[in-house]
Amino acid sequence: MATSNLTVVKQKMKFIINSRQFHKSLAPWVFLPLFISALTGTFYRISKDLLGYSRDEVHWLMSLHEGEWLGDNGELIYVILNSLGLIWMLITGLQMFSKTISFPKKVTKGESKG
């Protein structure tokens, strides 16, 4: 039984190390499209709602935001990859973050030495 638990722990550690490596290798490729989408989406909304620009005047921001400049098929691929990249980075980032936080372990009466 102890060997089985040790195997599971080793498998989890291997997955964590691999996901950390995937996170690190994917981050540079995901950063720019996500950054562009965040900036253009924010500036579009601010320009339209707060600064009073018409939809037509700021449509170029939405074109960048959605990847319209890549054509119909490119736009779809851009949005899907952008979404999957964000989801992957969030999952692996949260996983790594949760490993850096140590929670105090509850000690039951039977486990205490005093």
Describe the model.
By secondary structure, the chain is mostly helical. It has a domain at 27-92. Helices cover 76% and strands 0% of the residues. It is built from 3 helices and no strands. Helix 1 (2-50) runs antiparallel to helix 2 (59-66) and helix 1 (2-50) crosses helix 3. The protein is elongated. The mean pLDDT is 81.
In short:
This protein has 114 residues and is mainly alpha-helical. Helices cover 76% and strands 0% of the residues.
Topology:
Elements: H1 2-50, H2 59-66, H3 71-100
Helix pairs in contact: 1-2, 1-3
Features:
elongated; 114 residues; 3 helices; mainly alpha; 76% helix
Give the SSE order as H and E letters. HHH
Q: What is the structural class?
A: mainly alpha
Helix content: over 70%
CA(first)-CA(last) distance: 29 Å
Overall pLDDT: 81
Biggest beta-sheet profile: none
Tell me the overall shape.
Answer: elongated
Low-confidence parts? none
Distinct helical segment count = 3
Radius of gyration, whole Å: 23 Å
Number of strands: 0
Strand % is under 5%
